[in-house]
Amino acid sequence: MGKLExxxxxxxxxxxxxxxxxxxxxxxxxxxxxxxxHRVYGARHxxxxxxxxxxxxxxxxxxxxxxxxxxxxxxxxxxxxxxxxEDQCRQMFKVLRAHDIxxxxxxxxxxxxxxxxxxxxxxKKCGYELRCIHVPKTIDNxxxxxxxxxxxxxxxxxVASAFAGANLDNRALSGVYIGVVMGRHAGFLTxxxxxxxxxxxxxxxxxxxxxxxxxxxxxxxxxxAVHDKYGRCVIAVSEGIHDExxxxxVTKLMDSIEKDDHGNVQLSGTGALGDLLSAIVxxxxxxxxxxxxxxxxxxxxxxxxVSDIDQNEAREVGEKAVHFALWHDLDGSVAITxxxxxxxxYSLQPFENVAAQTRTMEDEFINxxxxxxxxxxxxxxxxxxxxxxxxxHRIRAPKVAKILGWGxx
Amino acid sequence: MGKLExxxxxxxxxxxxxxxxxxxxxxxxxxxxxxxxHRVYGARHxxxxxxxxxxxxxxxxxxxxxxxxxxxxxxxxxxxxxxxxEDQCRQMFKVLRAHDIxxxxxxxxxxxxxxxxxxxxxxKKCGYELRCIHVPKTIDNxxxxxxxxxxxxxxxxxVASAFAGANLDNRALSGVYIGVVMGRHAGFLTxxxxxxxxxxxxxxxxxxxxxxxxxxxxxxxxxxAVHDKYGRCVIAVSEGIHDExxxxxVTKLMDSIEKDDHGNVQLSGTGALGDLLSAIVxxxxxxxxxxxxxxxxxxxxxxxxVSDIDQNEAREVGEKAVHFALWHDLDGSVAITxxxxxxxxYSLQPFENVAAQTRTMEDEFINxxxxxxxxxxxxxxxxxxxxxxxxxHRIRAPKVAKILGWGxx
Lengths: 409, 409
Known about the structure:
2 copies of one chain form a homodimer.
Chain A: E1 6-12, H1 20-31, E2 37-43, H2 46-51, E3 55-57, H3 63-70, H4 86-98, E4 101-108, H5 110-125, E5 131-136, H6 152-172, E6 176-181, H7 188-191, E7 206-208, H8 216-230, E8 233-238, H9 249-259, H10 272-285, E9 290-294, H11 298-301, H12 308-326, E10 332-340, E11 343-349, H13 351-354, H14 375-381
Parallel strand pairs in A: 1-2, 1-4, 4-5, 5-10, 6-8, 6-9, 7-8
Antiparallel strand pairs in A: 2-3, 10-11
Helix pairs in contact in A: 1-3, 1-12, 4-5, 8-10, 9-10
């Protein structure tokens, strides 16, 4: 065991997830088991809190309440959108030193991993012994070196549940339904909509991802083909879809629609992309009933829609982070590896593997046409949404013979 | 017991709910216990299915599968947006007679109640003995004569869960959040957002309902006041908010914004109202981070977010409908009465009390300022979202004393 004595600091960066508090609680409860740890601090609002020494003494919190906080979505310590500059990372280090922080755990995405890297380098330069561990989280599942990341499974469960319901709604009142899902560069979260399918004719029938170029003409053709076949169509679209040159569709479509003299469209509109795609479908297919929803912020913090698998893993990455730092004297980024169907284990990878890197969907997960996912993705994704995922059921009763037959006149 | 022998027909009208199938299954399983019932038919896609004799023989379905269907959101028989004309109601009657339907159960809102009324009158005129029962359902809770309606509790649970999460998200990353909820004339569903509050500073901090005139100036003042106090603001808005002359805000604001030369806005935009209100807040308060979500279709069909109370009551209105018709030879609309905190009982009211009538929120449920609900509403609403409603928890750890105090420089 490492003998390095001092305090522990936990901070969070980036957007909240449904299970991020499990990681914070995992670190806090596990760290207190080590005699060389004096106090466990939590930084309020991430980097801002570190720069302002805005710390809570988590050592003076009950285990019961920490367990309850662990089950609460969105960061209980607060977060920030501020990305620390190299300079600020050096300042952060000064604060850590002042508070005798010897173990620093930063829960976040690739920017947080980069922050860890810089703080760690700075400590080495100054000969200040400090253990730095990056604890992964993101709903986008875009961190390299991980089978998947904590937060993704629960957000995916929300997306799959929303599409399962939207498919039932669309089946009862037919038409075209478009659901716009978060994910600018990685389509993983949008792809989770595929888990909503149970019966062969269930939606989502089409899935458009930022890993592929989006072609409005092809899109309209795809929708018409599905609508001709089933009399309805449910579509999952990533907010990040773009043209061949990488221009986001939401921008592109505005222009084309202006040129078509359909009038300007408010760019800031959170519903803009969904509305524009609806306009395309109506215009190019003549289908009248077209509806779109933009899942927006609900999908990352909706209370009560959590994957138990995700929750357990978020807790474990926090606990393992402590083990790597305190048992093994290591620095780095905790990574999840899949060891079975379904089981995982945890390792530590160099910050560089994660820092400022972005993972996108592997080709094997996207179909040849680029408008849906493959069975390989379904196999990969299914365990992550956890147990008790609700399943729809249909009436199988036979038809009754007509007597008047007006409909056939 | 009534001796009237023949077949049973179940149909559904209007928008789906999360528990509507419980009512259909309640009718189907209960009706089969009566010897005078030969067959139980289900009409596909409501009125359309009746006019086309598109019936399923529910008598040839297993109890197990019906129970599973009952737990599935959105109408398993399919629905329609078609509102039957008086003429079509007479045609519907002809179909019922052709199929020896003697018991007609129509699950829906006030239009369906009106349909029942006309079919029933027609049957009387023709001296054809027919029992007609309207079974209530709506997510808007806008049916007179009912304490509340099946479907409302589950939709309300979704809205409350979404705002509970949005409040946590907004607390972690501060700013202004606007959630737009369904409900053109009745604000009940929007008001359910109030159940998300746990701590005194929790959102939603402001709730705007169609029962009150919406004033953009007052709205901006309200938001600024909350933001000045808490550094953040969470707002629930009904899609139906309007000015003193009843013009919907979404229309009104477009104009004003055009006049302000902010450029045109696509009226069809599902996100339009949220975007427009965001623009107002930014413009009139100077607050930078303003976000809006439009809950759209997710709120009425999201799978896995169901109130157990709502589910049980939806089942019971179906069973009671059969009792009224088959034990007591009555026609009318089933109504839910609250008999305790919390318990309900069921009665039958004349179609006229419900048909084409709309209930809006009672004054005692809305605060004097018209920007929130009262404790009376919280007491009324709490039982309806059911058991196991998730509750957020906060870290209560004390602050750590600053050492460098840069923030205070």
